[in-house]
Each structure stands twice: as C-alpha cells, then as structure tokens.
Design brief:
Strand content: 35-45%
CATH topology of the largest domain: Immunoglobulin-like
Low-confidence stretches: 251-256, 260-264
Distance between the termini: 125 Å
Largest sheet: 6 strands, antiparallel
Mean pLDDT: 84
Oligomer: single chain
Shape: elongated
CATH superfamily of the largest domain: Macroglobulin (MG2) domain
CATH class of the largest domain: Mainly Beta
Strand order of the largest sheet: 12-17-14-15-16-13
Number of domains: 3
Radius of gyration: 45 Å
Length: 375
C-alpha cells in the first residue's frame, strides 16, 4: 500500500516466524515491540508499544501496529520489529511515503488517466508522446446514427461533412455485437455522414454502437482487384511470373485456321484436324487468330511444330523454328513421311521454344492413302 506523509490513522503489519520450526508464531503480541527511524535518523520506540494479533487462525503470525501522525512525518520510514521470545524473527520494513494529501491512490490514478490529452504538449514528455501515438493511430471516435443500418452502409456521427473525407480509413467497432470487427471504408457521403463498404460486416450494427477510425491509407477489395487487372502487361516481363504468363496468353489462341497447299496431299483439313498419309510427306499452312479474330504474327516467337502420341504425350515428330516458313500471317511446315500405322490417338501442336507455351493444337490423323481403282 501507499503511505501518506505526516498523516494519522495508518498501520503496518509484521510477520513473526519461529526460526527453529519455520512456522508462524501466535500469541506473542505482548512480547513484540518495534523501533522506527525517519529519514535514516535515530531510532525510537513506536508509540503503539505492542501490536494487535490480526487473526491467529486465518493469518497466523501476523501482528498489526498503529502509527501516529508524527511517526509518519518522513520520506522514508525504517521500522525494525523484535520479540523477547526466543527464536522469533521478523523482517525490517522500509516504507516510502508520499506528500500528496487529500486523495486516495485510486483517486489520483483516476485524475491522471482522465486528464485531457490535448493539454500535454511539452516536447519529450510522456503526455505528448501518448497524445501523438493516439493521434497517429486513431483518426476519430464516433457512433452509428442509423436505426436502419445495413451490413454494408450506415449513417454515423462522424464530424466531417466533406465527401470522401474518410475514404480508405479502417473502421473498427469497439462496442456492440460487432466489437472487434473492422472493414475499410470504400466511400464516405459527407452530406449524410454515411459510410459504405465493399465487404459487408457479418451483421448490421445497432444504433449508437461505438467505433473508431484507424489512420493509414488502405485499399478496398475493389481497389485491389482493379489495380491488379488494370496493370499493363508490359510491366511484368519476369519469366515464370503470373504477369508474364498473362502477357504471353494475350497472343495465345486455341482456334487455328489450317489452310492446305494442295488438295491431295494432305487431305483437306476439318476444323483444326490435320490428316497425313503413311509414307508420305505432308505440308500444312497454319494461320492463328486471337479471340477477337485478329491475325497473330507468328514471327514474333521462336516456334516449333510437333506431332505427339496422344496416349503417352511423347513427341513423335519435332520440327524446329528454322525449318518453318513464317510470314507475318502464317507458318508453313512440312512433316516428313511417317511409317506409323494408323492406330492410336495423335495430336499436332505449335509451341514456343522458350517455355513450351502452346499457341495452337488439334487432332493429327494418320491413315492409309486411298487406293487408285482407275483402269
């Protein structure tokens, strides 16, 4: 406890222990006395010659002395208790007094913590430090002022009437059923003191629920989505990154228009399916268009044409970029004769050599040449 300087009605307690047994000793009040020194001065017997035993059953060995007002008139009180009973020991006490009078410690604490922060501006002081911390973290305190609040919008008692003034601040509830929940303000209507959120709360707040706004620029879910999707593809060239993959995908198509250079070898294509005959070389012209129908310039990429075994994914034929004839509108490729029997499932594909991104693909048919039945 805190002791008041030069104040009557105060007490101090001592604990008497039997050193031979290590246990508290009871019934020894008549044999116990104490001496006191104020501010390291001469010792004198305390006015309360013998203490009162506090409670032999519930507080065995505890004895209580009364202090007179004069005995407390010092900044440091050194008290040495003793007993004439053999083997009884009590510890010395050092008591530091306070000169604040008229208030209990609780009242003083209340006065300190309830002091207005705006009144403490001395550089380097704890008062100013705490005020700066508060102002740097919490923009304002306010309440819901809306009996028809929804999970994503409600009117408030916020002080500013400027539109968008609190945009991007984080609102945190400090009372009510939503206490601890926070959302970023997407829009602030200063005329109606109304806040709106991209992400709704789990339930609507009640009228008069309290909240604070945290300082700092934050991004709403919609802002983050727009920033990601509106980023220029040219700004993300790192190989292996999602940005590079999306950039590459901007020239990718799954719709290839295949134009034969002859009508007999190979057979005319059907959609994206190419047909070649066993033991016969086949030449194909491939034209690629993007989703909008615009022709893709294949000279911008190093390409190769492959024929795969569809059941295993193994490349049966690989024709590198140097063996392709490329224009700004199409590529021409000659596939050497194949001795594979026309069984199984095959696929043709055009890929980039750098990361094997597929630009176009389709079915690759291998069949016997038609029989010539003419006389």
């Amino acid at each position: 406890m805190s002791y008041q300087k030069n104040t009557a009605g105060q007490k101090f307690n001592v604990l008497a222990i039997n050193t031979s047994t290590g246990l508290p000793i009871t019934g020894d009040a008549a044999n116990i006395t104490a001496k006191i020194s104020k501010d390291s001065g001469a010792f004198a017997s305390v006015a309360d010659t013998n203490p009162t035993e506090l409670d032999a059953t519930n507080a065995a060995g505890v004895y209580v002395f009364d202090l007179s007002q004069a005995e407390t008139n010092g900044n440091v009180l050194t008290i040495v208790p003793s007993s004439t009973t053999a083997n009884v020991q009590m510890d010395m006490l050092n008591i530091y007094t306070t000169s604040v009078t008229g208030y209990t410690p609780e009242q003083i604490a209340d006065q300190v913590w309830d002091e207005a922060a705006s009144g403490h501006n001395v550089g380097g002081s704890f008062g100013k430090f705490i005020r700066q911390m508060k102002e740097g973290l919490i923009v304002v305190e306010a309440t819901v002022d809306d009996g028809s609040a929804t999970t994503s919008s409600f009117q408030t008692t916020l002080p500013s009437s400027v539109n968008d003034y609190y945009n991007d601040d984080t609102l945190v509830f400090i009372s009510g059923s939503l206490i601890g929940q926070s959302r970023i303000i997407a829009d602030y209507d200063g005329d109606n003191l109304q806040v709106t959120f991209d992400e709704p709360f789990t339930s609507a707040p009640a009228d008069s629920d309290e909240f604070i706004l945290l300082a700092g620029h934050n991004l709403t879910l919609t802002q983050i989505q727009n920033t990601v999707w509106d980023a220029p593809t040219s700004a993300h060239p790192i190989p292996g990154s999602t940005g590079k993959a999306l950039q590459d995908a901007s020239v990718e198509t799954q719709n290839a228009y295949v134009l034969p250079i002859s009508t007999s070898d190979p057979c005319a294509p059907r959609g994206t399916a190419l047909t070649a005959f066993i033991n016969g070389a086949a030449t194909f012209v491939l034209e690629f268009k993007d989703a909008s129908g615009a022709i893709i310039d294949p000279t911008l990429e190093a390409l190769y044409f492959v024929v795969e075994d569809g059941s295993t994914g193994t490349d049966m034929v690989v024709i590198p970029d140097g063996s392709l004839t490329k224009t700004t509108k199409n590529i021409s490729v000659t596939v050497p004769a194949s001795d594979n029997t026309p069984i199984g499932s095959y696929r043709w594909a055009v890929r980039t050599e750098t990361n094997e991104k597929v630009l176009g693909y389709g079915v690759y048919n291998i069949q016997y040449a038609a029989q010539d039945d003419s006389p």
